[in-house]
Amino acid sequence: TLPDLPQAQTRASGVQLADGSVVVFGGLHADCYASDLRFCKQGAQASFRWLPSEKRWQPLPTLAVPFDYGEPFDGGNSSIASSYRRSDFLLHEGRDLYYLSSGTMHWTDEQKLEPTRLHRWRLDGNTQSLSSTQLSRLNATLVELNDGRFAAVGGSSANEPASPACQFCQDQRRQEVAR
Which of 17, 20, 23 is nearest to 93 (CA)? Predict the structure, then answer.
Protein backbone atom coordinates (compact mmCIF):
# COMPACT_ATOMS: atom_id res chain seq x y z
CA THR A 1 0.00 0.00 0.00
CA LEU A 2 1.27 3.43 -0.93
CA PRO A 3 0.61 6.40 1.35
CA ASP A 4 -1.38 9.39 0.15
CA LEU A 5 0.41 11.83 -2.11
CA PRO A 6 1.83 14.99 -0.50
CA GLN A 7 -0.46 17.05 -2.74
CA ALA A 8 -4.06 15.86 -2.94
CA GLN A 9 -5.21 14.86 -6.43
CA THR A 10 -7.51 12.33 -8.04
CA ARG A 11 -7.31 10.00 -11.02
CA ALA A 12 -3.51 9.87 -11.01
CA SER A 13 -1.69 7.35 -13.17
CA GLY A 14 1.44 5.52 -12.20
CA VAL A 15 4.04 3.00 -13.15
CA GLN A 16 6.56 0.92 -11.22
CA LEU A 17 10.16 1.36 -12.34
CA ALA A 18 12.74 -1.43 -12.53
CA ASP A 19 14.30 -0.29 -9.24
CA GLY A 20 11.00 -0.85 -7.39
CA SER A 21 10.15 2.83 -7.03
CA VAL A 22 6.79 4.09 -8.29
CA VAL A 23 6.23 7.21 -10.40
CA VAL A 24 2.79 8.83 -10.06
CA PHE A 25 1.70 11.51 -12.53
CA GLY A 26 -1.14 12.95 -14.58
CA GLY A 27 -3.70 13.43 -11.82
CA LEU A 28 -6.51 15.94 -11.53
CA HIS A 29 -6.84 18.73 -8.99
CA ALA A 30 -8.58 17.28 -5.94
CA ASP A 31 -11.86 19.13 -6.55
CA CYS A 32 -12.16 18.18 -10.24
CA TYR A 33 -14.52 15.64 -11.71
CA ALA A 34 -13.20 13.46 -14.53
CA SER A 35 -16.71 13.33 -16.01
CA ASP A 36 -16.71 17.11 -16.61
CA LEU A 37 -13.29 18.59 -17.27
CA ARG A 38 -14.55 21.99 -18.47
CA PHE A 39 -14.30 23.49 -15.00
CA CYS A 40 -11.01 21.89 -13.95
CA LYS A 41 -7.83 23.86 -13.54
CA GLN A 42 -5.81 23.30 -16.71
CA GLY A 43 -2.22 22.11 -16.60
CA ALA A 44 -0.38 19.27 -14.98
CA GLN A 45 -0.57 18.43 -11.29
CA ALA A 46 2.61 17.65 -9.37
CA SER A 47 4.29 14.32 -10.07
CA PHE A 48 5.96 12.20 -7.41
CA ARG A 49 8.17 9.13 -7.05
CA TRP A 50 7.72 6.74 -4.14
CA LEU A 51 11.10 5.63 -2.79
CA PRO A 52 10.36 2.39 -0.91
CA SER A 53 13.78 2.16 0.78
CA GLU A 54 13.29 5.65 2.26
CA LYS A 55 9.51 5.35 2.67
CA ARG A 56 8.90 8.81 1.25
CA TRP A 57 7.58 10.65 -1.78
CA GLN A 58 10.12 12.52 -3.89
CA PRO A 59 8.72 15.50 -5.87
CA LEU A 60 9.40 15.33 -9.62
CA PRO A 61 9.19 18.95 -10.78
CA THR A 62 10.40 18.16 -14.32
CA LEU A 63 7.67 15.57 -14.98
CA ALA A 64 4.62 17.60 -16.02
CA VAL A 65 2.02 15.23 -17.48
CA PRO A 66 -1.51 16.60 -17.93
CA PHE A 67 -4.47 14.43 -16.97
CA ASP A 68 -5.86 12.08 -19.56
CA TYR A 69 -8.26 9.21 -19.19
CA GLY A 70 -5.86 6.47 -18.49
CA GLU A 71 -4.29 3.25 -17.41
CA PRO A 72 -5.69 2.06 -14.10
CA PHE A 73 -3.13 2.17 -11.36
CA ASP A 74 -3.94 0.87 -7.91
CA GLY A 75 -1.74 2.06 -5.08
CA GLY A 76 -3.41 -0.31 -2.64
CA ASN A 77 -5.67 1.17 0.03
CA SER A 78 -4.76 4.79 -0.74
CA SER A 79 -6.01 7.79 -2.66
CA ILE A 80 -3.87 6.79 -5.63
CA ALA A 81 -6.19 4.80 -7.83
CA SER A 82 -7.50 5.41 -11.30
CA SER A 83 -10.36 3.60 -12.97
CA TYR A 84 -9.57 5.08 -16.37
CA ARG A 85 -7.55 3.31 -19.04
CA ARG A 86 -4.59 5.41 -20.07
CA SER A 87 -2.49 4.26 -22.98
CA ASP A 88 -0.61 7.44 -23.89
CA PHE A 89 2.56 6.52 -22.00
CA LEU A 90 4.97 3.64 -21.80
CA LEU A 91 7.91 2.65 -19.68
CA HIS A 92 11.07 1.92 -21.66
CA GLU A 93 13.74 -0.38 -20.20
CA GLY A 94 12.27 0.09 -16.72
CA ARG A 95 13.52 3.65 -16.32
CA ASP A 96 12.52 6.05 -19.12
CA LEU A 97 8.93 7.25 -19.26
CA TYR A 98 7.66 8.27 -22.71
CA TYR A 99 4.34 10.09 -22.87
CA LEU A 100 2.10 12.05 -25.22
CA SER A 101 0.84 15.51 -24.37
CA SER A 102 -1.78 17.52 -26.23
CA GLY A 103 -1.67 20.62 -24.03
CA THR A 104 -5.34 20.55 -23.04
CA MET A 105 -7.72 18.16 -21.29
CA HIS A 106 -10.80 18.79 -23.43
CA TRP A 107 -11.98 20.51 -26.56
CA THR A 108 -14.13 23.57 -26.90
CA ASP A 109 -15.27 25.12 -30.15
CA GLU A 110 -13.12 28.19 -29.64
CA GLN A 111 -9.86 26.36 -28.94
CA LYS A 112 -7.06 26.14 -31.43
CA LEU A 113 -5.55 22.77 -30.71
CA GLU A 114 -1.82 22.23 -30.43
CA PRO A 115 -0.09 19.24 -32.04
CA THR A 116 0.44 16.28 -29.74
CA ARG A 117 4.01 16.02 -28.50
CA LEU A 118 6.10 13.00 -27.56
CA HIS A 119 8.18 13.56 -24.41
CA ARG A 120 10.80 11.49 -22.60
CA TRP A 121 11.38 11.73 -18.84
CA ARG A 122 14.45 10.11 -17.33
CA LEU A 123 15.26 9.17 -13.75
CA ASP A 124 17.90 11.90 -13.60
CA GLY A 125 15.05 14.43 -13.97
CA ASN A 126 15.75 15.28 -17.59
CA THR A 127 12.57 15.84 -19.61
CA GLN A 128 12.85 16.25 -23.34
CA SER A 129 10.31 17.00 -26.06
CA LEU A 130 11.24 14.62 -28.88
CA SER A 131 8.71 15.06 -31.66
CA SER A 132 5.18 16.16 -32.44
CA THR A 133 2.31 15.07 -34.63
CA GLN A 134 0.90 17.35 -37.31
CA LEU A 135 -2.50 17.35 -35.60
CA SER A 136 -3.74 17.19 -32.04
CA ARG A 137 -4.68 13.65 -30.97
CA LEU A 138 -6.52 13.17 -27.69
CA ASN A 139 -6.59 9.76 -26.00
CA ALA A 140 -4.16 8.26 -28.50
CA THR A 141 -2.19 5.12 -27.73
CA LEU A 142 1.60 5.30 -27.65
CA VAL A 143 3.24 2.22 -29.16
CA GLU A 144 6.92 1.35 -29.45
CA LEU A 145 7.64 -0.34 -32.77
CA ASN A 146 10.13 -3.20 -33.19
CA ASP A 147 12.69 -0.84 -34.74
CA GLY A 148 12.63 1.51 -31.72
CA ARG A 149 10.41 4.20 -33.24
CA PHE A 150 7.19 5.33 -31.54
CA ALA A 151 3.73 5.68 -33.04
CA ALA A 152 0.69 7.60 -31.80
CA VAL A 153 -2.23 5.38 -32.78
CA GLY A 154 -5.96 6.04 -32.64
CA GLY A 155 -7.48 8.58 -30.33
CA SER A 156 -9.51 11.42 -31.72
CA SER A 157 -8.82 14.71 -33.36
CA ALA A 158 -11.15 17.66 -33.74
CA ASN A 159 -9.08 19.06 -36.60
CA GLU A 160 -8.39 15.96 -38.66
CA PRO A 161 -10.29 15.19 -41.85
CA ALA A 162 -11.72 11.74 -42.43
CA SER A 163 -9.89 9.33 -44.70
CA PRO A 164 -10.41 10.20 -48.38
CA ALA A 165 -11.06 6.49 -48.96
CA CYS A 166 -14.50 6.94 -47.42
CA GLN A 167 -16.51 9.69 -49.12
CA PHE A 168 -19.50 9.20 -46.80
CA CYS A 169 -17.24 9.47 -43.75
CA GLN A 170 -15.62 12.60 -45.17
CA ASP A 171 -19.00 14.24 -45.81
CA GLN A 172 -20.21 13.30 -42.33
CA ARG A 173 -17.03 14.73 -40.79
CA ARG A 174 -17.50 18.03 -42.66
CA GLN A 175 -21.03 18.30 -41.25
CA GLU A 176 -19.75 17.67 -37.71
CA VAL A 177 -17.02 20.31 -38.07
CA ALA A 178 -19.54 22.82 -39.50
CA ARG A 179 -21.76 22.53 -36.38
Answer: 17
Decide: 16 and 39 in contact? Cβ < 8 Å.
no
Query: How do residues 82-94 score in pLDDT, each as one tens digit?
Result: 455 567 888 988 8
State pTM to two decimals. 0.70
Cβ contacts of residue 68 below 8 Å, gap of 6+?
26, 86, 88, 102, 105, 138, 139
125: left (phi over 0), alpha (psi -120 to 50) or beta: left
47-62 average pLDDT score: 94
How far, in Å, CA of 154 to CA of 143, rounded?
11
Distance between CA atoms of 107 and 5, rounded to whole angstroms? 29
Strands (E), 36-157: 48-51, 56-59, 89-92, 96-101, 117-121, 127-132, 141-144, 150-153
In 3D, which of 86, 65, 84 has the Cα closest to residue 23? 65
- How many whole angstroms separate alpha carbon 118 and alpha carbon 9? 24
- The enclosing H or E element of 124 equals none
Strand-strand pairing, 141-144 and 150-153: antiparallel
